[in-house]
Specification:
Layout: H1 8-16, H2 18-21, E1 25-26, E2 28-29, H3 40-45, E3 49-51, E4 54-60, E5 64-71, H4 74-79, E6 87-94, E7 100-108, E8 122-129, E9 138-139, E10 147-153, E11 156-164, E12 181-189, E13 220-221, E14 229-236
Parallel strand pairs: 1-14, 2-4
Antiparallel strand pairs: 3-4, 4-5, 5-11, 6-7, 6-12, 7-8, 8-9, 10-11, 12-14, 13-14
Length: 245
C-alpha cells in the first residue's frame, strides 16, 4: 500500500493513540560539534519519531538546530530524492514566531544514469523561504550558516540539516532558543504546489487552504494519495544544561 493510504485499521490505531501523539518530540542537547560525522553517537541516543514511514530525530546546541530525516520506504525515497519532480520542504515555526523553511529543488545530474542509480542521477539546489521583507525566497549561500545534505547509507535515504537557532549576524535562522517549542513540517510537494505564491508576510500563510494546517496538535498524518507527503510535529528544544552558560 502506498504511504498515505490509511486503512480503516490504521485510522483506528492512529485515533486510539491520540493521547500519546499529543506529546511533543524532545530534542537532545549536543555540545557544539565539529561536523556532521561527529554527531553519530548523539543521533544514536536521540528520540526518534516515525511518521508514516519517515524517521525524524532532532538535536540542538546553544546556537544550532540539527535535523536528521531518513526513510527505507521505496516510495518515500523516490519522493524525497526528486524522482517524481517533487520539491522537498523543511519548515520551522517557533511558538508565536515567524515561519521559515528550506526548499529543495531537484534537477538531473549531468552524466547521471537514472536506470542504474535514480537517486545518484539527481542533484539539487536549496532555497531559503520566509517573510519577503527578509529577502526570501532566495538561494542558499555559504554565508547563511545553513547546511543541507542528502546521502544514501546502506539503502536508507538520509537528509541532514544544520540551521542557526538565532540570527547571530546571519539573515536566516530558526528564531528559537534552547528550551523553546517549535513546529516542524516536512513535505514532498508536487510541482504545481512547490512554490508558495503571494507577497509579504509569513510564507506559510500562502500554504493555507491546501493540505498543510498549522493549527493542529502534535503529529499529523496529512497524506493525499498520489499527491506527495506532508507531516507536522511539535518539537521541544533541549534547554541549556545546568552549569553551562
Amino acid at each position: 500500500m502506498r504511504p498515505g493510504a490509511l486503512s480503516w485499521w490504521g485510522c483506528f490505531v492512529f485515533l486510539g493513540l491520540g493521547a500519546c501523539a499529543a506529546l511533543p518530540q524532545k530534542s537532545r542537547w549536543v555540545f557544539e560539534p565539529g561536523d556532521f560525522a561527529s554527531l553519530q553517537a548523539d543521533w544514536d541516543k536521540a528520540d526518534e519519531s516515525i511518521v508514516d514511514g519517515l524517521k525524524v530525530r532532532v538535536l540542538n546546541s546553544g546556537t544550532q538546530l540539527h535535523l536528521l530525516v531518513s526513510t527505507d520506504d521505496r516510495t518515500l525515497k523516490d519522493e524525497f530524492s526528486g524522482q517524481y519532480a517533487q520539491s522537498v520542504l523543511f519548515w520551522f515555526q517557533p511558538k508565536g514566531g515567524v515561519g521559515r523553511g528550506l526548499r529543495v529543488e531537484f534537477f538531473a545530474r549531468k552524466g547521471g544514469d537514472p536506470w542504474k542509480d535514480p537517486i545518484e542521477a539527481m542533484d539539487h539546489r536549496v532555497y531559503l523561504e520566509g517573510p519577503s521583507p527578509e529577502g526570501t525566497p532566495r538561494s542558499l549561500s555559504e554565508e547563511d550558516g545553513v547546511e543541507c545534505l542528502e546521502r544514501v547509507e546502506s539503502g536508507t535515504l538520509v537528509w541532514e540539516l544544520k540551521l542557526p537557532l538565532r540570527a547571530m549576524g546571519k539573515d536566516f535562522c530558526v528564531g528559537a532558543a534552547p528550551g523553546d517549542s517549535l513546529r516542524l513540517g516536512i513535505e514532498a510537494t508536487p510541482p504545481a504546489e512547490a512554490d508558495p505564491s503571494g507577497g509579504g508576510g509569513d510564507f506559510l500563510d500562502h500554504k493555507e487552504g491546501r493540505h498543510l494546517r498549522r493549527d493542529t496538535d502534535a503529529v499529523v498524518l496529512q497524506h493525499r494519495v498520489g499527491d506527495g507527503y506532508s507531516c507536522v510535529l511539535d518539537v521541544l528544544l533541549a534547554p541549556v544544561p545546568r552549569g553551562q552558560k
